């Protein structure tokens, strides 16, 4: 593997996304987004608009009938769901031919599964879901920064790098000057997204502390649960536990432990169904 340049880059160079994709990422993480903003932003890129409607129909609308406009989609699915679909579409679109690499698709699916798991945990525990969904959607964005900046070099590292996450991040830093957690935080700060999203991107592999916010805690849990459901970002396949939350319950604040235990199987079923719908729509 050749050693890529580790020269510093400006904020504008950090993620070579089309302007529409960057705008959609901001949209998907904005808790006060409205339907007109969704329509105006997504409509700036006709290819993304067409794909969002296709995915919305294939993955979520089904028997209720086809939606032909973003306003219809927002009425069926809600503003945040449409913004989340658009963000997933825009990220995939930005990958171009890199999407053909199974290791890249695996990263994308893990990121998506974490967002959906975080959202469903919040709903099951009767907590506001929007911020944890946004945190899940951006928690691993640093991997995509590295994919887009270093292309084949990073894809090879995904495929051949060490399984242990700490060793893998050391290898990222050695080869590229930053690991994916550092790249993710730097990007989210540059985009002026809510600070908690940068905090999650920087520390989602670290065990939360008693002072960690619910968003930090539940995104960490969602990331590990998504992996335990088979949606791993990288590394070799391992035997999957029947209950993906069994080893994670004691991480969450005490008041949420029994509800999480009671809802574990239904959470798993909902997430598996949602991720499966996305997989079919994006195949």
Low-confidence stretches: 1-15
The first-to-last residue Cα distance is 30 Å
Structural class: mainly alpha
Number of helices: 14
Radius of gyration: 18 Å
Main sheet: strands, sense, barrel: none
Please describe the structure with a list of short key phrases separated by commas or semicolons.
283 residues, mainly alpha, Hypothetical protein af1432, 2 domains, globular, disordered N terminus
Summarize the topology:
Elements: H1 19-28, H2 35-42, H3 46-61, H4 70-77, H5 79-95, H6 102-124, H7 130-138, H8 141-150, H9 152-160, H10 165-176, H11 180-190, H12 195-203, H13 214-228, H14 257-282
Description:
The chain has helices spanning 19-28, 35-42, 46-61, 70-77, 79-95, 102-124, 130-138, 141-150, 152-160, 165-176, 180-190, 195-203, 214-228, 257-282. It has 2 domains: 13-96, no CATH class; 101-283, Hypothetical protein af1432 (Orthogonal Bundle). The chain has 283 residues and is mostly helical. The two termini are 30 Å apart. The radius of gyration is 18 Å and the shape is globular.
């Amino acid at each position: 593997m050749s050693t890529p340049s580790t020269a510093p880059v400006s904020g504008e160079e950090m993620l070579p996304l089309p302007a529409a994709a960057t705008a959609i990422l901001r949209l998907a993480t904005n808790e006060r987004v409205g339907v007109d903003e969704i329509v105006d932003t997504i409509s700036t890129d006709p290819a993304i608009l067409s794909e969002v409607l296709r995915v919305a129909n294939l993955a979520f609308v089904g028997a209720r009938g086809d939606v032909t406009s973003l306003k219809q989609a927002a009425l069926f699915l809600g503003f945040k769901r449409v913004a989340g679909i658009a963000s997933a579409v825009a990220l995939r679109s930005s990958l171009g031919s890199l999407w053909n690499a199974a290791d890249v698709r695996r990263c994308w699916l893990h990121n998506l599964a974490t967002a959906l798991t975080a959202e469903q945990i919040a709903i099951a525990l009767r907590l506001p879901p929007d911020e944890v969904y946004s945190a899940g959607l951006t928690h691993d964005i640093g991997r995509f920064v590295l994919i887009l900046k270093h292309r084949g070099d990073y894809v090879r590292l995904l495929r051949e790098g060490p399984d242990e996450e700490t060793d893998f991040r050391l290898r990222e830093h050695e080869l590229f000057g930053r690991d994916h957690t550092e790249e993710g935080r730097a990007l989210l700060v540059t985009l002026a997204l809510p600070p908690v999203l940068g905090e999650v991107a920087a520390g989602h592999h670290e065990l939360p502390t008693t002072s960690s916010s619910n968003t930090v805690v539940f995104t960490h849990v969602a990331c590990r649960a998504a992996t335990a459901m088979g949606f791993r970002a990288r590394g070799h396949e391992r035997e999957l536990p029947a209950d993906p939350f069994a080893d994670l319950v004691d991480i969450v604040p005490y008041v949420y432990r029994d509800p999480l235990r009671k809802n574990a199987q239904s959470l798993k079923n909902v997430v598996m169904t949602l991720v499966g719908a996305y997989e079919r729509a994006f195949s």
